[in-house]
Design goal:
heterodimer; A: alpha+beta; Ubiquitin-like (UB roll); 5-stranded mixed sheet; globular; B: alpha/beta; Rossmann fold; 2 domains; 16 helices; 13 strands; 14% strand
């Protein structure tokens, strides 16, 4: 299974400028773990010191806020497009 | 001049405190949290007095020392300094003795408080060298960006949910802006704009210019304090969409207090939403520090934001102040529009109906006391949302231009028809 992930400009310094990548992660937690193993240092921008997802990081799956899909519990489907959006004009908080 | 201005204020992360200077940026790359403009108050305070402010223009620019503005504002529009009117009629209906309406339904040039934030944002856009300005909007912001961009020589690209009120569409197009209707709700439009902002070098007033833009909302608070005779009210009731306005009125009061321009006084902040889109009021009422996003379903489209950018800070502002938050149904908000019009002669849009109806609810709950000084923030004009009143007012027959026809008509009217409108008040 494969999902595509869009990396916001703010985090591309960790991905050698790569804006989009593919992942075989099954859940959001798996995805974040995979990102950290591929791009060491990125995780602390995705999670706070207590391990919680940063409150101002918005995560969308196929145009839907992941919080409407069950959040952490959501199981990615083949071909899902995952979009990470920092604070900007909407907030997770 | 720019360098001097840059020293007076700069961006700082609201969460981790990292400083970002001045640039078109809305979030911290370290923790992804929003940025806010902070000021060198020690320097500002040396020259700022009530007298110096009162000597300024009758517009938001009289407070320019506390706004992130570097350019000479003389080219700008006379935005803001709207009336603060004692609301004795409305207060009488509510049994409250010290109600005031801050009437941004008549803000220049596009009849909503968004004129204030856009005036500041476009100054930042000029400072950062943008030729194109843009926004995601539920309508009022679209009007304000389109109008002020026309005046100040920017190209404007405006993104709105496809289903906003026809008057707000028209009042954007008329200024020659490029208007893009999106099949989706505001939160989806907003997300799209964050993606566009990464691809195009545009000044999005509420995306990459957001920290500067939001500062414009402080002027509502500055004006309330000055117009009350340089004192703070006991309570303010504020409609909440993205949640920035309520936090910025708080910031304005704090700044005036810190600079010694008003006496320190606790002010309670009350937030108002439509029940059909109430992420912030729901969190406050459930005693949650963070909100859960919602899918909006309300005729109060101007405040229908299910994922409010400043929701977290709005909740904190309300809770820290000892205030509260309430929401009302679409039917009650229409009653609020009618009641404000009938008692004060002020025709507000749906968001103002929400604020009016919520104020009544808070008074009836005893959360606001009748003798306290309470300011209702009316943020938009009713002529933009007339469709909300469909079916609420009677259709009038035409009569012949003859005296006897009028006499017969008035007899019929006075004998049969008790006034329909909102004389029964807003449902509790």
């Amino acid at each position: 299974m494969s999902v595509s992930v869009e990396i916001p400009t703010a985090l591309r310094r960790f991905t050698d400028g790569q804006a989009k990548l593919d992942s075989s992660a099954a859940t959001l937690n798996d995805l974040f773990a995979e990102l950290e193993s591929r791009f060491p240092g990125i995780a602390r921008h995705l999670r706070d010191d207590s391990g919680q997802i940063r409150p101002f990081l918005n995560i969308y799956v196929n145009d839907e806020d992941i919080r409407f899909l069950g959040g952490d519990a959501y199981k990615f489907q083949e071909g899902d497009k995952v979009l990470l959006v920092p604070s900007i004009a909407g907030g997770r908080a | 001049m720019a360098e001097a201005g840059l020293e007076r204020y700069e961006l700082r992360c609201r969460e981790c405190g990292k400083r970002w200077g001045n640039q078109a940026r809305s979030f911290c790359e370290e923790c992804l949290s929003p940025l806010e403009v902070t000021y060198d108050y020690a320097t500002i305070g040396k020259n700022l007095t009530r007298v110096s402010i009162e000597a300024g223009p009758n517009s938001i620019w009289r407070y320019r020392a506390l706004l992130p503005i570097v350019e000479d504002e003389s080219a700008s529009l006379p935005v803001g300094f709207t009336p603060l009117v004692p609301a004795r009629g409305l207060g009488g209906r509510f049994g409250a003795r010290n109600l005031y309406v801050k009437n941004d339904a008549v803000c220049f040039p596009t009849l909503s408080f968004k004129d204030r934030v856009v005036a500041v944002a476009l100054s930042a856009a000029r400072q950062f060298g943008f030729d194109v300005v843009s926004c995601s909007s539920t309508g009022n912001l679209a009007n304000a960006v389109a109008a002020q961009a026309a005046r100040r020589g920017f190209e404007a690209w405006i993104f709105v949910p496809a289903d906003i009120e026809p008057a707000k569409i028209l009042a954007t197009q008329i200024y020659g802006a490029r208007l893009v209707r999106i099949s989706g709700n505001y939160d989806q439009v907003n997300r799209l704009c964050t993606q566009i902002a990464e691809q195009h070098r545009w000044g999005f007033v509420n995306v990459n210019l957001r920290p500067y833009y939001a500062e414009g909302s402080k002027t509502v608070g500055f004006e309330i304090a000055e117009q009350l005779g340089w004192r703070l009210p006991d309570n303010v009731v504020v409609p909440m969409a993205g949640g920035a306005l309520i936090t910025k009125i708080r910031k304005a009061f704090d700044e005036l207090t810190q600079l010694g321009l008003v006496s320190d006084k606790p002010v309670r902040f009350f937030g108002a939403q439509a029940t059909g889109c109430s992420p912030i009021t729901t969190a406050v009422k459930d005693h949650q520090p963070r909100f859960t996003p919602q899918k909006p379903s309300t005729i109060a489209r101007s405040i229908a934001i299910g994922n409010p950018a400043d929701g977290f800070y709005a909740i904190r502002t309300i809770n820290d102040s000892g205030g509260w938050a309430e929401d009302v149904s679409d039917s009650d908000l229409v009653g609020g529009i009618q009641l404000l019009a009938e008692t004060e002669g002020i025709f507000t849009e749906t968001a103002g109906g929400v604020t009016t109806a919520v104020t009544q609810k808070l008074l009836s709950q005893g959360r606001i006391s009748p003798e306290e000084t309470t300011v209702l923030c009316i943020t938009g004009n009713g002529l933009k949302t007339t469709d909300a009143l469909a079916g609420r007012l009677e259709t009038l027959e035409a009569i012949a231009p003859r005296l006897e026809a009028f006499e017969a008509y008035s007899d019929r009217l006075l004998n049969n028809a008790p006034r329909a409108a909102a004389s029964a008040g807003v449902a509790r």
